[in-house]
Specification:
216 residues; mainly beta; Jelly Rolls; 2 domains; six-stranded antiparallel beta sheet; 50% strand
Length: 216
């Protein structure tokens, strides 16, 4: 067998995995006492488009892009061991507060979507935590909100949701901003952003996993 991508096999019924989409000329050469014959076939492979959110369980940080929304931010955002964690190197004054985000491009079909994630807050104060979906890619050292055409889905605010400044569970269940609805009129690419900023991220930081995006 000649698989057309530089790989061959002498097995009778081999299996082969292609690394890229494209058109491949696959050739089988059958040999015996009476000589040999060749059979060639064109194989076209197209990688199907993936819809929705990927690596919401934080198992693969390569799906997420981490940015700082504040040029002077002391924020830290890590994705490791199955969780994303927001923290800061110091409790700075406003203007130098931590403000970190993580996002990914997502392909969405027409329809209405809601979201949720598991969040752990341990004595936070003077912080906000928000989830947005928008048509434009977030930019480092810049805000991301309705001014960018983005929709706030769910959020926590240490001011507006003070009863939950220590909490572990579904953010949608204690959401105090946004109506958790995003409507897509035409199939296309959008951006899913999780961000948090402020002064005190609590003991152990803000910990997130199990991010989901559901089509209603």
């Amino acid at each position: 067998w000649d698989f057309g991508d530089g790989n061959t096999s002498e097995e009778m019924s081999p299996s082969h995995t292609y690394g890229d989409e494209g058109t491949y000329s696959v050739k089988l050469t059958a040999s015996g006492a009476g000589g040999s014959n060749e059979f060639t076939s064109e194989l076209s492979l197209v990688i199907p488009e993936v819809f929705g959110l990927q690596a919401g369980d934080m198992s693969d940080d390569s799906f997420w892009t981490v940015i700082s929304h504040n040029a002077n931010s002391t924020g830290i955002l890590t994705i490791e061991e199955g969780v994303a964690t927001w923290s800061a190197t110091a409790d700075n004054a406003w203007g130098n507060e931590a403000h970190m985000g993580m996002y990914q491009a997502i392909n969405l079909e027409a329809g209405t979507y809601s979201t949720d994630l598991n969040i752990t807050l341990n004595g936070v104060s003077e912080i906000w935590f928000e989830v947005y979906i928008g048509p434009n890619e977030p930019v480092s050292e810049a805000d991301y909100n309705a001014d960018n055409g983005a929709t706030q889905m769910i959020a926590h605010s240490a001011w507006d949701c003070a009863n939950n400044n220590t909490y572990s569970g579904s953010l949608a269940d204690v959401n105090c901003a946004g109506d958790n609805t995003f409507t897509v009129s035409a199939t296309g690419t959008y951006y899913y952003l999780i961000r948090s900023g402020g002064i005190n991220f609590g003991e152990g930081g803000i910990v997130v996993d199990d991010v989901v995006l559901n089509k209603e």
